[in-house]
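look at this one:
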Amino acid sequence: LDLPDGDLTPTAVTFNCSMAGQRWPLALQTFGAMCRLRCSNEATPTTVISSFHADDAANMEKMQAWQAALCRTWLPDWMKGYNAALSLCETWRRWDLAIALLHPMADVVSFSSVISTCEKAGRWQLTLLILDMMRCQKVRANNFSYNAAMSACGKHSAWSKALELFEEMIRFQIQEDVVSYNALLEALVEGQTDGRLEGPSVALLLTSMTEALVLPNLVTYSTALMGFEKDGRWEEGLHLLRLMRMKLIELDIISYNSAMSACKVASQWQ
């Protein structure tokens, strides 16, 4: 960053504007100058990480070099910008970049963002690994962390892992919510083998929700209906449809199709 001679002193805004659009080597040099001058703000990490994403030549080794520089010069006011940068990785589905940028100072928001990034990128095994990292670093996970990991497991039929995570939430007294139950339901339904559902029944999970004072939503009911359909439990599917009507829950085409399919399979179409 070249400035004319005189009394002009670059500010964090000056440096950040300079880095915007730079290729990664220049961005890294500019970042180094900012660190030496102790001149930065919360937008700095986001600006640097954006340069890595935009530069096709930026590989894992180069990203880790920046992470090393970040570790040496970490400033407290970077946390908000750092987490915002990790959220960008989630938007880009850059799981590799998100993991490379995990920092020893990462908090539960940071880790949860990386887990969500891996979930969206279909890397369900990595979500479990990152939860283990949180335990090692004594960072207490929250329901967002677990929900994203369970959702990742569910999308890849790893229902037993999703169930383990759900039970772990209860054991660690992490409050489960409707997203938690929906993720577990999806995992059980997607993990069906030989026309039968594995693990706890759909009806049991719905009962557990009621006992936990967690209100089901349309996703819950639609997934449950799919479970009843796949399990051949047409009577329970129809009962759930009636319950949805009583609760004035707006039915969608998926709900009706699941119920009709269950009746057809059981030859109870009347």
Q: What stands out?
A: The mean pLDDT is 75. Residues 24-37 form the longest helix (14 residues).
